[in-house]
């Protein structure tokens, strides 16, 4: 059975290779082949899941060693997979949602001439992501980690004839590279400290290392997580990443890849548990990002960018939960899974709306779409209810547990974190209601295109509707399913460990408070966007709104602090290299050339002057010989 | 005594003579004969170099397949060849790359169309013999480089280390890009002279050190240039070099290798040479000839002067660290595609030298793999860039844009080359770069950490170049650009395949290299720093 | 007669020849001065030979004479050909040694 594990990765990888190398021959059926291989991988995942359920909690983790990758004395990196409950959860999420999004893309990308390549990249992404979560050592994880970065780069820049897409892709890759720097330093630290970077040995001997070393490792892992999961301060790429086709945003930049940071932190629980300072940093990053993303999400008129802000914010919740330590790991992953469902569903819905509205993304040009796109409206609506935490839907259960855990951190810290999380819940309800109202309710504010034709919104084809429906089902029921009997908790506990905190507030109080906050946000949004007509041209707005529209000035900051000094530095260095270093060398050559020019004048060609110098030379020789003899 | 090594060196040398002697002529058929003969010779060389690598037993003696013929008896100079894992791998790399370079440069040495004013293409060679000259020179370089990798006699190595400058000088100065006008001919001769002077200066300093070494060794009864004898004597303590003498001799050797490698701040000849030469010659420079420099640091500097190596290691590490960051920053600022690749190479050479002088097994194995992987990946990157440049006739980045729309295969292979350059996991350079970083970190944590900045900067220059040339709206002048031809694909495909293969399964190389690296380290009396809290040997090995 | 006197004569002749080479412009005269110097050294050689009672010096003197003769042949030919092209035998007319 374990030999199926490599096949999980191999199936989509083979698909990607076939589609890229096969050329035009695959144009007609390549997309179905890719979808079938994604589904096959999902099938393998289910089979392994069934197999795993047959064993009890402590014996579920299995490893499958394939071959030794880079062996240099003590440095032993293996290609070796580890399938435990945590990676199993991810495998099912990735292949399941991945398959649905492949299916959706069949319809969404039907008219793109480069569809084959798109599916090749999607399959490549699945393979890399599965490698990331299945790796049993950090170096192999790093392989997957950068692999998904590559897939993300290729897919964000899929429409690379648009300069904005190409720039966004490059930006995403480079910001992620900054994070990857953290991961590589973490691996180096582990190797220097433990002589290994495989999970089991590192976690087993983590307690022997000093807290300072563990904190350093933890902070470096956090840097990596910030890059991949778009957390402050490496968040700036996610909004631009919406340049990619919408299925990409749904799969990579909402459901799976961006949550890899949460996976990394949870996977490294053994290190973070022993490094409270590193955990504090994680919590702070999570709390700041959750508010940052939410505020940005409120101001964006671009539907995908609003959802991107929301993604950032929701991942902030997960990071916050993961930073809380054993009381939060399980809920971080639980929220990650439910978020995977509803956010993917929301993005697919947004894609469907754009599909019907001739690729219009500005929500101020939508309005009243619910009658024209009933399926989209229904599925999007369910996703919306799930994300704002409407009681009974999946977001309600997972987010509620995180807020509870935040309060349970205890002390002032716990209060601050809990309040942040509560405010976040209110803001989430506000911006999501805004998206909902602007898109599906109110008057039609449709704008004519260049030729003066109004868009004709229509429901999406069946290949697109089916995935949306299935994801909506997940968004509705997943939370309840996980919460009943604490089934998810029991499932993951053997891997991540779990401890109950002492919350100053009772569980029911937290639930009540969360619901009140949610209703407040919802109500405010209704007052602002539901009751009064929405202007097509955005009003100037408060300074905060204006800043939020510019992503709270993140790009201006990066530009002023990094880009401009950086380009000044390169320009200076280019000058220094050609004038300084090379100038020195060329100057030396010129001096020698000048000297030899002088010396050359001695050779004037007149016989008698040569004769004179000859006599002079003879004289000197004779004189010195005589002198030497007399001495 | 097997003559396999001599044969491997002699075949390309004989091929060079043969190619040069082939009948000249301006007809296409005659040129094709020349090229085919040269390619066939390089293919035979590849087979021989592969045979050497296969017959090398990693667990056997340090130097294998040894041969020795007396040469200049009065100075104890012999023509001795022998191969260790590092030399075998690098010679194989050379043998792999030369046929690729030949195929890629198939038309580079054809007599070009006369300039509009009727003047002939300025070249060192008479136009009718250009093709013969070009391919003969490449084979000559190949022969000399392979001798350098196999030589176990210090003087023999020195002779070929210097001699390869001559064919390289003519390759750089005589056969340039078609891209430039008369100005470029001037630039080209400047570049060729600069290349020659820099490397000659380094070589002269080394010659002084070689003589000095001989004099000191002869005083103590070792009147020989035989490397194994000398290194064993140094390691065993029977040949004693005083501290000052050792430092001076080390610097003499190191200077020559640092110029060739090149190490910051001795690098400025490389961008000129790589920029002005044809893409194929540029690959020969950076992927083949420069590797002799880094290889020689590993074999000669460390083996002959272990104490001085340890003394100077921190200073050299700092220089290489500067080189990593400096090269990358300059690459970002370049406007010329080929110069950008050259500066990127300077950054990579910083990594290689850093790995060598970190004096850890990971660092040195990484550095050796880096030499191979950098050779393969830069060859792919540079050759595709060359194909691109030959289509548009310009080296300026600003002249390109949107190429992926019209030539997707070209753009795709260029992207893979870029990704290899920025060390994406799964491609070969990642393995080596990470090993170098880890190897450096375990001994010098601060330097290791700063060096990781290099990986961010590498992403920046590689992807900026890709974005500016390949994406965006299709520029005028790019519109009718044809995609890669079969010949060009035949050049790039094996390189890409090797890059991927060695990224996923580098075992064939590490198995060859590791024992030699361990031997080198034991000569320097260095062992890897032990981890602070070692885990009992459960990691990795547990399943084996 | 004291052989040392021959040496004085030889030195005198040599000095005359040397100053002639440096001072005179005409190539032919210059040539004669060179011959004078050669013969001065011949004289010195023969004198030394006499003083030491060996034949070495005399033999070398013969060699010198042969060399001088050969030199005259080549040298005169060059001077004649220069005179033909330039219509002058002055060595200062042009920097002959520079191409």
UniProtKB/TrEMBL annotation, chain A:
Residues 135-421 form the NADH:quinone oxidoreductase/Mrp antiporter transmembrane domain. It is found in: Endomembrane system; Membrane. GO terms for biological process: ATP synthesis coupled electron transport; electron transport coupled proton transport. Keywords: Membrane, Transmembrane, Transmembrane helix. Residues 69-119 form the NADH-Ubiquinone oxidoreductase (complex I) chain 5 N-terminal domain. GO terms for molecular function: NADH dehydrogenase (ubiquinone) activity; NADH dehydrogenase activity. GO terms for cellular component: endomembrane system; membrane. Pfam families: Proton_antipo_M, Proton_antipo_N. This is NADH-quinone oxidoreductase subunit L. The lineage of its organism: Bacteria, Bacillati, Actinomycetota, Actinomycetes, Kitasatosporales.
UniProtKB/TrEMBL annotation, chain B:
GO terms for cellular component: endomembrane system; membrane. It is a multi-pass membrane protein. Keywords: Membrane, Transmembrane, Transmembrane helix. It is found in: Endomembrane system; Membrane. Residues 151-457 form the NADH:quinone oxidoreductase/Mrp antiporter transmembrane domain. The chain crosses the membrane at residues 37-56, 76-98, 134-151, 157-175, 196-217, 248-270, 282-305, 311-333, 340-359, 371-389, 409-432, 444-466, 486-505. One of its GO terms (biological process) is electron transport coupled proton transport. InterPro entries: NADH_Q_OxRdtase_chainM/4, NADH_UbQ_OxRdtase, ND/Mrp_TM. Coiled coil: none annotated. One of its GO terms (molecular function) is NADH dehydrogenase (ubiquinone) activity. Belongs to the complex I subunit 4 family. This is NADH-quinone oxidoreductase subunit M. The lineage of its organism: Bacteria, Bacillati, Actinomycetota, Actinomycetes, Kitasatosporales.
From TrEMBL, chain C:
InterPro entries: NADH_UbQ_OxRdtase_chain4L/K, NUOK/Mnh_C1-like. It is a multi-pass membrane protein. NDH-1 shuttles electrons from NADH, via FMN and iron-sulfur (Fe-S) centers, to quinones in the respiratory chain. The immediate electron acceptor for the enzyme in this species is believed to be a menaquinone. Couples the redox reaction to proton translocation (for every two electrons transferred, four hydrogen ions are translocated across the cytoplasmic membrane), and thus conserves the redox energy in a proton gradient. It holds the Pfam family Oxidored_q2. One of its GO terms (molecular function) is NADH dehydrogenase (quinone) (non-electrogenic) activity. GO terms for biological process: ATP synthesis coupled electron transport. This is NADH-quinone oxidoreductase subunit K. It catalyses: a quinone + NADH + 5 H(+)(in) = a quinol + NAD(+) + 4 H(+)(out). It is found in: Cell membrane; Membrane. It comes from Kitasatospora aureofaciens (Streptomyces aureofaciens). The chain crosses the membrane at residues 6-23, 28-48, 60-83. Its EC number is 7.1.1.-. Belongs to the complex I subunit 4L family. Keywords: Cell membrane, Membrane, NAD, Quinone, Translocase, Transmembrane, Transmembrane helix, Transport. GO terms for cellular component: NADH dehydrogenase complex; plasma membrane. HAMAP family: NDH1_NuoK (MF_01456). The lineage of its organism: Bacteria, Bacillati, Actinomycetota, Actinomycetes, Kitasatosporales. NDH-1 is composed of 14 different subunits. Subunits NuoA, H, J, K, L, M, N constitute the membrane sector of the complex.
């Amino acid at each position: 059975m374990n030999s199926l594990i490599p096949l999980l990765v191999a199936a989509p990888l083979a698909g990607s290779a076939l589609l890229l190398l096969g050329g035009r021959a695959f144009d007609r059926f390549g997309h179905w082949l890719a979808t079938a291989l994604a589904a096959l991988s999902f099938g393998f995942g289910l089979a392994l899941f069934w197999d795993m359920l047959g064993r009890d909690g402590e014996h579920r983790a299995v490893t499958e060693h394939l071959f030794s990758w880079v062996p240099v004395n003590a440095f032993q990196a293996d290609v070796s997979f580890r399938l435990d409950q945590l990676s199993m959860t991810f495998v099912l999420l990735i292949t399941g949602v991945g398959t649905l999004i492949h299916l959706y893309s069949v319809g969404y990308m039907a008219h793109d001439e480069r569809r084959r390549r798109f599916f090749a990249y999607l399959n490549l992404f699945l393979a890399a992501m599965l490698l990331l979560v299945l790796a049993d050592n950090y170096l192999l994880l790093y392989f997957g980690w950068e692999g998904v970065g590559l897939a993300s780069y290729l897919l964000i820049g899929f429409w690379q004839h648009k300069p904005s897409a190409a720039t966004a892709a490059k930006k995403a890759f480079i910001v992620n590279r900054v994070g990857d720097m953290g991961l590589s330093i973490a691996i180096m630290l582990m190797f220097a400290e433990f002589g290994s970077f495989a999970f089991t040995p590192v976690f087993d001997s983590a307690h022997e290392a000093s807290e300072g070393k563990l904190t350093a490792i933890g902070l470096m892992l956090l840097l990596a997580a910030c890059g991949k999961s778009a957390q402050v301060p490496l968040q700036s790429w996610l909004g631009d990443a919406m340049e990619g086709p919408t299925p990409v945003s749904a799969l990579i930049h909402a459901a799976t890849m961006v949550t890899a940071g949460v996976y990394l932190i949870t996977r490294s629980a053994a290190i973070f548990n022993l490094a409270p300072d590193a955990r504090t940093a994680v919590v702070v990053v999570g709390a700041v990002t959750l508010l940052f993303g939410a505020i940005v999400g409120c101001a964006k008129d671009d539907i995908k960018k609003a959802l991107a802000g929301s993604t950032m914010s929701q991942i902030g919740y997960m990071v916050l939960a993961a930073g809380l330590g054993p009381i939060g790991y399980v809920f971080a992953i639980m929220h990650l899974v439910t978020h995977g469902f509803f956010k993917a569903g929301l993005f697919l819905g947004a894609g469907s709306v754009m599909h019907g509205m001739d690729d219009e993304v500005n929500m101020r040009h939508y309005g009243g779409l619910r009658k024209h796109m009933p399926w989209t409206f229904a599925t999007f609506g369910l996703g919306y209810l799930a994300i704002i935490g409407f009681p009974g839907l999946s977001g309600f259960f997972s987010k509620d547990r995180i807020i509870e855990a935040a309060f349970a951190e205890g002390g002032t810290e716990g209060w601050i974190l809990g309040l942040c999380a509560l405010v976040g819940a209110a803001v989430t309800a506000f911006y999501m209601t805004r998206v909902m109202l602007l898109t599906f309710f109110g008057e039609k504010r449709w704008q004519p295109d260049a030729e003066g034709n109004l868009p004709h919104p229509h429901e999406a084809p069946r290949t697109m509707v089916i995935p949306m429906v299935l994801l909506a089902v997940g968004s509705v029921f997943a939370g309840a399913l996980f919460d009943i009997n604490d089934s998810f908790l029991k499932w993951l506990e053997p891997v991540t460990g779990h401890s109950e905190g002492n919350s100053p507030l009772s569980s029911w109080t937290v639930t009540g408070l969360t619901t009140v906050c949610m209703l407040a946000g919802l109500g405010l949004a209704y007052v602002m966007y539901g009751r009064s007509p929405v202007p097509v041209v955005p009003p100037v707005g408060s300074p905060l709104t204006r800043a939020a529209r510019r992503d709270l000035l993140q790009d201006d900051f990066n530009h002023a602090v990094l880009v401009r000094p950086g380009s000044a530095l390169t320009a200076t260095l280019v000058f220094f290299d050609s004038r300084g270093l090379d100038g020195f060398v060329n100057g030396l050559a010129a001096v020698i050339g000048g000297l030899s020019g002088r010396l050359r004048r001695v050779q004037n060609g007149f016989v008698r002057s040569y004769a004179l110098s000859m006599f002079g030379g003879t004289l000197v020789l004779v004189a010195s010989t005589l002198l030497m003899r007399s001495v | 005594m097997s003559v396999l090594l001599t044969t491997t060196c002699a075949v390309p040398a004989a091929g060079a003579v043969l190619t040069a002697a082939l009948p000249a002529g301006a007809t296409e058929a005659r040129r094709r004969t020349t090229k085919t003969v040269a390619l066939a010779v390089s293919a035979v060389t590849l087979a021989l170099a592969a045979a050497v690598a296969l017959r090398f037993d990693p667990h056997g003696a340090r130097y294998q397949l040894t041969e020795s013929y007396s040469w200049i008896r009065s100075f104890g100079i012999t023509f001795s060849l022998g191969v260790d894992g590092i030399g075998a791998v690098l010679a194989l790399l050379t043998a792999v790359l030369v046929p690729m370079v030949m195929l890629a440069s198939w038309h580079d040495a054809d007599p070009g169309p006369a300039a509009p004013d009727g003047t002939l293409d300025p070249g060192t060679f008479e136009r009718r013999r250009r093709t013969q000259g070009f391919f003969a020179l490449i084979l000559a370089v190949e022969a000399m480089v392979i001798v350098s990798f196999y030589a176990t006699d210090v003087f023999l190595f020195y002779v070929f280390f210097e001699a390869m400058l001559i064919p390289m000088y003519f390759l750089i100065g005589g056969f340039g890009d078609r891209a430039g006008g008369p100005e470029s001919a001037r630039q080209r001769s400047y570049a060729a002279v600069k290349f020659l002077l820099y490397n000659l200066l380094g070589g002269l300093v080394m010659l002084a050190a070689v003589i000095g070494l001989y004099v000191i060794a002869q005083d103590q009864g070792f009147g020989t240039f035989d490397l194994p004898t000398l290194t064993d004597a140094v390691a065993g303590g029977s040949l004693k070099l005083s501290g000052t003498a050792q430092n001076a001799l080390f610097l003499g050797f190191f200077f020559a290798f640092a110029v060739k490698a090149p190490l910051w701040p001795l690098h400025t000849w490389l961008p000129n040479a790589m920029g002005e030469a044809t893409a194929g010659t540029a690959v020969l420079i950076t992927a083949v000839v420069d590797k002799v420099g880094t290889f020689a640091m590993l074999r000669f500097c460390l083996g002959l002067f272990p104490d001085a190596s340890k003394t100077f290691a921190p200073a050299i590490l700092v220089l290489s660290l500067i080189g990593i960051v400096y090269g990358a920053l300059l690459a970002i600022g370049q406007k010329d595609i080929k110069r950008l690749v050259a500066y990127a190479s300077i950054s990579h050479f910083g990594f290689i030298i850093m790995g060598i002088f970190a004096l850890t097994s990971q660092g040195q194995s990484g550095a050796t793999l880096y030499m191979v992987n950098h050779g393969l990946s830069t060859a792919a990157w540079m050759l595709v860039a060359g194909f691109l440049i030959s289509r548009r006739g310009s080296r300026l980045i600003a002249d390109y844009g949107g190429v992926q729309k019209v030539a997707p295969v070209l753009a795709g292979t260029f992207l893979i080359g870029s990704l290899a350059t920025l060390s994406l996991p799964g491609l070969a350079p990642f393995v080596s770069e990470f090993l170098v970083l880890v190897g450096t970190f375990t001994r010098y944590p601060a330097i290791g950490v700063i060096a990781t900045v290099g990986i961010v900067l590498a992403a920046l220059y590689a992807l900026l170049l890709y974005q500016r040339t390949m994406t965006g709206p299709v520029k005028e002048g790019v519109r009718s650009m044809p995609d890669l031809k079969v010949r060009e694909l035949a050049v790039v495909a094996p390189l890409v395949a090797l890059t991927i293969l060695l990224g996923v399964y580098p075992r064939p190389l590490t198995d060859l290299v590791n024992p030699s690296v361990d031997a080198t380290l034991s000569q320097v009396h260095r062992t890897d720093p032990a981890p602070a809290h070692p885990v009992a040997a459960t990691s990795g090995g547990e399943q084996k | 007669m004291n052989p040392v006197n021959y040496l004085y004569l030889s030195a005198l002749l040599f000095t005359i020849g040397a100053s002639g080479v440096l001072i005179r412009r005409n190539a032919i005269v210059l040539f004669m001065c060179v011959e004078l110097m050669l013969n001065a050294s011949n004289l010195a050689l023969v004198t030394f030979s006499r003083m030491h009672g060996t034949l070495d010096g005399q033999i070398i003197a013969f060699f010198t004479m042969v060399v001088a003769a050969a030199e005259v042949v080549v040298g005169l030919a060059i001077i004649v050909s220069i005179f033909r092209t330039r219509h002058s035998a002055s060595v200062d007319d042009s920097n002959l040694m520079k191409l």
